[in-house]
Protein 1
Amino acid sequence: MRREALQMTSPLFPTVRMRRLRLTEATRRLVRETRLHRHDLVLPLFVCEGEGVRREISSMPGVFQTSVDELVADAERARASGVLGVILFGIPASKDPVGSGAYDDAGIVHRAIRALKARLPELIVMADVCLCEYTSHGHCGVVEGERISNDPTLDLLARSSVSFARAGADVIAPSDMMDGRVKAIRGALDAEGFDQVPIMAYSAKFASAFYGPFREAAESAPQFGDRRSYQMDPANRREALREVLLDVAEGADMVMVKPALAYMDLIRDVRDAVDLPVAAYNVSGEYSMVKAAARNGWIDERRVVLETLTGMKRAGADIILTYHAVDAARWLAEDEAVL
């Protein structure tokens, strides 16, 4: 087949020279097929109790648990760099079996939302909706024995979503992977007058080994078992599309594939299957691998990050959640200023 292809194309040379459109940076930009922009990026942030708190996460260099005041400062820097949105994860002062901090109107994420909207009203503030950060057992739903019970969890997720919307969240982002959660959340939001608040569903979220550093950052490691009874099997492609289409039918306004790097085929599948905006989460393990290799001098961090994010965009992602957001936005701005 390769010989036949060469025989078919070789007579076109020297008339056809593919390198003509690669010779200069200006020409390469002119014909570029995929364009990564600062506005495509969303920055995840971790908020904790206290004041003036800034604790670096050991497995995620450059990422911090911060108190509300420090988080607002980080969000201001992100917005100044051209990043349009942030997504919030909370580390509450205490946890309990039902994750009540997730739907406490005075909870840590609720206070962060109010502070951000007061200081940066134009910033898109997304609230991650899940119980794992708030439960003493670290699972994403109500535990009965050692079983994660789906239906009792739905009410708590809906309560959390309404409380985040009441605090001022612009987008509700359920990440729990319980069946029926989008329908429950949409119904609860609409019933409470938040019919204009969109839902960005973590629709195809896999039980991935790439989440390890996040569990340190959010202090959300499960105390027993694992999450494979509700997060997806990494081997399943058709099931991912079923999950996405169910979320769309239940009222999702945006859908997400998580993680991103090892799942670019699914990002493309989802992009081809739906007309909704598609998000991809460039998760903690992906970030940490790049940081570790860069610190050892094995890779050019800037080039690898921009190439990776461009790959996610090329695969079909409209929105990319990434811990690289501020650096990537700055690098993109510098590149734009060259010509």
Note: Residues 35-338 form a domain with the TIM Barrel fold (CATH 3.20.20.70).
Protein 2
Amino acid sequence: MENLTEEKNAVDLNKAEQFLDQFILDLSANYSGVMTLLGQELGLYQAMRGAGAITPAQLAAKTNTFERYISEWLNNQAAGGYVLYNAENRNYTLPEEHALVLIDKDSPFLLGPAYYVVNSLWNDKEKLSKAFTSGSGIGWHEHHHDLFHGVETVYRTGYLANLNTVWIPSLKDMEEKLSIGGRVADIGCGHGASTILMAEAFPNTEFYGFDYHKESIEVAKRRAKEKGLDNVFFIEAAAEEYKHGNFDLICFFDCLHDFGNPLKALRYAQTKLAHDGSLLIVEPNAGDNPEDNFNPIGRMFYAASTALCVPHSHSEEGGYCLGAQAGPAAVEKIVKEAGYSRFRIAQQNPINLIFEVKL
């Protein structure tokens, strides 16, 4: 009994209170994430954008929703600083700067649809719990459908801001080669956001998007058709199964760490490269040690890695399970083991590491 009292006395209640404050902030953000997703799906942000100051009644009328719900939703948004509240006139405003983050599909700041990814994680919680206790995997295709939409939209934000203007120009002679006309493979292309952006920027080059997920390929084909592109082709194929070759550039956008056997995928890519071809590997920015990544972005990526990346790796043969925070040393080791001799960090930003790889 005396020892228990000593342990309780050793607890620093100030530290407990500080952690409680942090936890409340996290809990508030989680509660409010649902409100953010509703704001997107019901067109509430869209109706507020450019409308200036607006009352709950006016927003309800514009969106065919009920005023009492809208009033409470607006107060949640104002409490979080997502919208601005004028206490004197009791109206609300969505700043244009916030709209760029929340809903503008062509904004380099768009992150609002990331909550579709969060929603998919909650929907797949039971699957993940079983994976934790059984060691089994969860294939990408087995996740809730909100994941695919959320990942496409959020990743496209980074590609829109960097792919054609920073990343490709950072590769030796690649921008000139693609401008003249070449061949590019996009492995694990998903809904084709990266493939389509490149195809639009380099109309003289042929782009091939490969993904094992049939539904994603169908969406990618539809996206390309809507854009009227005739230099992009989407094909259902895994990372070690695509038949086309002679590629000047083979891209792995945010997917190499998901593979059960990235070594096999990299070796296969060797057989599909043209003379003096290159690999472009884009991975989440991470340090080589766990403690290097103990920050808000690292926290987010570790969660995604736990719920998405490691489970998919476990669903495939190979057993590498790199995870989303593998770091450059781990990536370089596999690249060198696959037989490539040249590896360098071509670019980096707070979110991504961009590697150029050559034989």
Note: The two ends are 68 Å apart (CA to CA).
